[in-house]
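Let's sit down with a protein and look at its sequence and fold side by side. Which protein we use is up to you, so please pick one and set it down. Label the sequence line and the structure token line clearly, so we can match residues to local backbone shapes. Go ahead whenever you are ready, and we will take it from there:

***
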Amino acid sequence: MTARPAARPAYVFDFDSTLVRIETLEALADLALAGTPDADAVRAEITRLTDQAMSGEIGFGEALRRRLGMLPLTRAHVDALAERILDEGAPSVRRNRQWFLDNADRVVIVSGGFREVIAPIAARLGVASDRVLCNDLRYDSEGRVTGVDDANPLSRAGGKIEAIRALNLPGPVVMVGDGWTDAEVKQAGAADRFYAFTEIARRPPVMAVADAVAASIDELLHAEGEKGRFSYPRSRIRMLLLENVHPAAVERLEEAGYTVETETGALDEDALIERIKGVHVLGLRSKTQVSEQVLAAADKLMAIGAFCIGVNQIDLAAAAARGVAVFNAPYSNTRSVVELAIGVMIALMRDVADKSAAMHRGVWNKSATGAKELRGKTLGIVGYGAIGSQLSVLAEALGMRVVFFDLSERLALGNARRARSLNALLADSDVVSLHVDGRAENAALIGAAEFAAMKPGVLLLNLSRGHVVDVDALAQAVQDGRIGGAAIDVFPEEPRTNADPFDSPLTGLRNVILTPHIGGSTEEAQEAIAEFAAERLLGYLNRGDTTFCVNLPNVQLADVSGGHRILHIHRNQPGVMAELNQALSAAGLNILGQHLKTDERTGYVITDVDRDYDPEALKALKTVAGTLRFRLLH
């Protein structure tokens, strides 16, 4: 005899602080009390009554009537909240809207809230009106709220229990909510399981009696097996962001459902080895070093986000060898760096820093001697990437002549021309600006020999990497008068925090501007970096997209649709693809699409498959020779 499949559960959702991130009555109080003298006191009392009702200290019916009686509430206030309620949807509800639409026949909304406010959310989730059980407000002839329909069981204590029992729902009933009245449903036997929902509000008495706690809809669906046994809830994925990463990144990642921890400063190797355990995503800027030893201790790490341009602080080969994707933000602070370069160029040409320092000492030195315009001067740009090329455009707009040198083939913008060699550029330039990357080959790119090849009185700018310039040789060239001035924003050794001291042979030298690695430190740049790097991390976590990844093959992917996605990162060695496809075939998977991208050390295979398969069979994919990392997305 064939076993009957287990019945699919019916899901009963509370509304306030579950499907939406607000408490309806508190939001209505804000509208109704606007401009009234005792508004704060009334709001505080309403919040207190709400918390007492949600924690089971007073009956729901009593709390509802007392709260309504305190408000000069009208139909206009209710309509105003209803108009914006779609914007108040809980983040994980919005993320999982498709699941609600696909399973609307198994979803019920039961709430002590009001139909006018609940109906728009229910409709957006595809829940039919006869599966929305809630209170109906009563109005007088002038549109003032006078109360609720007393005949409705949801207007009194125990109403949720009575309303759910009357539905006679088939199969197991799963109650999901944040309040005591939701817990009572399970306690009274009207539900088989109760999840305390904590994405919006955490109520310890409710959590204490729950069968389980769900911090998001993702966790609920994972626990109930709704999205596949290998779907890992986003809220259980830990992200650690160091070095005061801009709050926009934190907001975006938390909005997507991930758990984010932050640190204001960098961590040294020992501290990072301790903190990295259990972390799935690491975010950092330029100070934290991610060594092979750190990566060896990272038992859960999937990705690293460098919230800056450079990635030389990360052992990219060691990360790739463990299947850890590394992303950066190569363009987001370009404009900020370029504007600082233009600014210090003008300041050096006019001896602004020294004249300003003299003024602060009470010395008035009005003189045109040695002060020059940028117009007509030659700017030599070493490194013609995103920053160098944009600097080229702005400098030319100021009337400068631009030459550049780059080892890669680059398209010259405007009237800029390529120099035949680095020395040719140095000999031809009135100002030399460095914009190269942090690779080891660029160490001491500009040293004593290069200073000797420059025009006497040349100005030098380094806003790229600290190790690119031999600072001892630069200090000597400034003191000898060979170099007319310099603006240095990056240094071979930089303090780990603002509280640590700074020392350099360049301090105290005439016409030398020193800045503390602030080339990209503008509010606009930091926000842009935060948004870009966060989106790259989300693209990788949510759909396997490796666009702009600096250590794994780049593959641009759309969202998973109509199936499941298998992500397989492996060493680039013979036979892996054949063995992988053999394992897929043995698992009986119907392949909807497949991509393979490799570089010299790593292969990345993305396979979209139908949902009809045995999840246990996929375990064989982890044992394919050369496997570095295996993930399944639903």
Observations:
- The chain is about 35% helix and 20% strand.
- The first strand starts at residue 10 and ends at 13.
- Confidence is low (pLDDT under 50) at residues 1-5.
